[in-house]
Protein 1
Amino acid sequence: MNKQIPHIKNQIRCIILFFMVALIFSGATAIPAQTELTILLRHLPADSVIGSLLAEVLHAVQDTGAHYPFLFYGNDWLAFAHFVIAVTFAGVLRDPVRNIWVLEFGMIACAMVLPFALIAGGLRGLPLWWRLIDCSFGVVGFIPLWISRLKTLHLQEMMRQDRLNIFF
């Protein structure tokens, strides 16, 4: 057996574990939006572009919470979706070759972030710089999945060669 196979599997697992933790963390941050905004605004100048925008966002969050708290249930479902998507990558941890489709699904989802953020954010009146930050999550998420896919394809070829070497 090729001694590199366990090493490459371990590399893939480490990358995917990082990706899963990042997804879970990202989802968890959707729940306490008001608290996060309050803390963030303590550290930003109020007269800066981002400070004034986030102050407006905080005011909207507070107003929504006071009058329509049920709307935050959507944020809870957003967090839940992040958790569920993270769980799908458990298959890659077990068997990257058999579950390469999960990596491809994740890469497609990351690519879809770009047009969605640009179009939906534009329709909602978000400034371009905000939409570009949202797009960066798709780009940053794509990179570890792409690396994992390349390593998985390499692993698949090494395993195929290993099976052939048994007969020769």
Protein 2
Amino acid sequence: MTEVSRIGLDLAKSVFQVHGVDAREEVTVRRPLRRGQMLGWFGKLPPCLIGIEACGTAHYWARELTRLGHTVRLIPPGYVKAYVRRNKNDAADAAAICEAVGRPSMRFVAFKTEQQQAASGIHRVRALLMKQRTAAMNTLRGLMAEFGIIANKGMSGINELLAIVADPEDSRIADPLRAGLVAIAATLRALDTQLGTVDKAMAAWGRADKTCRHLNTIPGYGPVLSTAMAARVTNPQGFDSGRHFAASLGIVPRQDGTGGKVKLGPISKRGDGYLRRLLVNGAMSVLRSKQAKHDPWLVTLLASKPLKVVAVALANKMARIGWCVMMRQEDFRVAPVTAA
């Protein structure tokens, strides 16, 4: 126990696997631990380096083990896979984590504070509610279309359908389906109320957070994107430049080459897909605004590229600007346009 210098910890629901080595890379501990034994066992251990896969509950355990004096590193699961030998099991995963965390070129994930994790969690709640609302809307449209009732796209069409369902004198839809559609309408109203509560809580956190206030000054950024960026990007200093940050979000061309010839394909779609989607949505809002007509860079791109291609290019630019704002902790300033 006194000779342990590095530990690989494989997390689970109830039983965790520990694999530790000393300074000579010899295995000194290999054992399972139950959840209730974790803090007591690591509390008796001298400070050492602990590697954990960046998965569920990893940020919680990273905070707890750091309080005990240990140095904790979170590793992306995809980077650990290369070190698993033969059959995959908890003991083999712990050994692979222990080996991966000692590599000098390994990349790590910065673990979140409790406030950042709470802000990130409310985005997951909002995404779930949005998914449920979209499913309810699509079900309402599909069932009423079976009776020849077609509505326009968007919320205006949904409101038309809800008005038909709420009208007791409309006999185009018979029981028992009408009762089911009334239940869907009630579900949609409840989801709208819950989404309003979540959005208010999210906006309140954003107003209290300095980084969110700076991000809100960037065109295309709003309360949702700003809070998501501030909550999920816990360590912008870990990226060498804004280009590296944009690449980590998967909004750069994917490279595929051999023999010295490199081909650029579609975007790589690696990293945080939620942030990437919000950035593209923010870019689309900019392209549909008056600002797109006065920005020479956007005007040039729109003249030769499809709208969605330009949106991805603008999302890339927004990500790099967001990284600069987070690094400098200051508001965004529009660069003056020089006359040609």
Protein 3
Amino acid sequence: MQPAGGSTISVQVPSSDIVFACSHCSTSFVVDAAAAGMTLDCQKCGKPTTVPKVTLEVAIDNAVKISDLQHQLKENESQRTEITGYINQLSIQLHRWQLRLQTLNERQQKLEAELAAICPR
């Protein structure tokens, strides 16, 4: 059993191949049609998964769906990475402002203490 290469799967699937996803981890695979109905161990998660018995039309539909889902997952991950970057930038900025506020509070206390020492009430 071979994992499907690349992030997209060609729509022109040879008639002797079956494109399917592991029922446990959704890893996509392309196997020879002779393996239809066999139970194989997934190379990614190690769990047994059954090769479906499908027609060429269903195999092509599955390949298109898998390709589309992989594209959507890649796009989703890209957006998550972008948002995580923004959150990290804002967290750093927040920390800087908190340090600045702490410095100003300490300065205020020092100045008030100096003022109290010069001008007793």
Protein 4
Amino acid sequence: MTHRSRPLAAAFVLMVAGVLALGLRLAAAAYPERYITIICASGAGGIVDVTTRILADHMSRTLGRTVVVQNEPGAGTTLAISSLTKAAPDGYTALTIGPAAGVIAELYPKFTVDMQRDVRPVSIVGNAPQVLLVHKDVPVTDYASLVTYLKAHPGDLTTGSNGRGSAGHLAGALFKAMAGVDIRYVPYRTTPQAQSDLIGGRLSMMWLSTLTDYIKAGTLRPIAVTSLERWKLFPDVPTFDELGLKGYEATTWISMHMPKAAPKEAINALTSALDAALADPAVRERLDQVGVLAPRVTGPDFLAKYLKAEVDKWAEILRANKDGD
């Protein structure tokens, strides 16, 4: 080797060593290396938001990185879904969404994102029954008198929720189809906005998972719960199924998704972190307080099957109710 070639050879060796060292550092890097953002397709204060924040708090400790919740409500959750699909598929952006995930294609046929095709499932994270609440000024006392009044006064009473495709909207659509009644639907941007109008009497009724204080105060009257079995949050309130609407079920199931090209490592890490949170007694207690049940089965495979079943179920209901209300 000539005298002039020795510096070049040394530089080459250093370059190779640097590349190898960088590769080793990257290989050794454990996910996550920075904070994770969860886009919540619901406004602050809604059941999807509350559940997301309870779980994100525990996930931050499990993963050793901050999990940030970013609310993006509106447009039937299509804004939040679009934000997810536009995010870098690096494992640092996720989405939590309610039952709208199963009805996007039916309610928004021009929306190009398909929840089964264009995003990756992570896990179901919670399930909350709802209770139909009627304002005290509505002249009904129970399910039978409500149905009688609705049939005698079609379209006089109103219901609302945080947009078409939300749990409250779907519960109402199912009730209208099965009971053969007419209720005017009023879409809101967020759940708290709709709740405010319900409490103030500007909205006749609403399907919700909260507002127990207003029930105790007599402002709101519970009619029936939307699960097939009685709900321990409202043990004295019958189910729609008990009252004659056989098979009626419309719960707020909450799921987490990531961009389609998200790395499997990230999917697995988030699934494990969610499972750890849902197994924590303190987290379960907090979820119980807001009426959210922990899912019996978790993980991407189960969510994919569950989502397909929901898409099939609600397509028929919403097509029968063509105005989407």
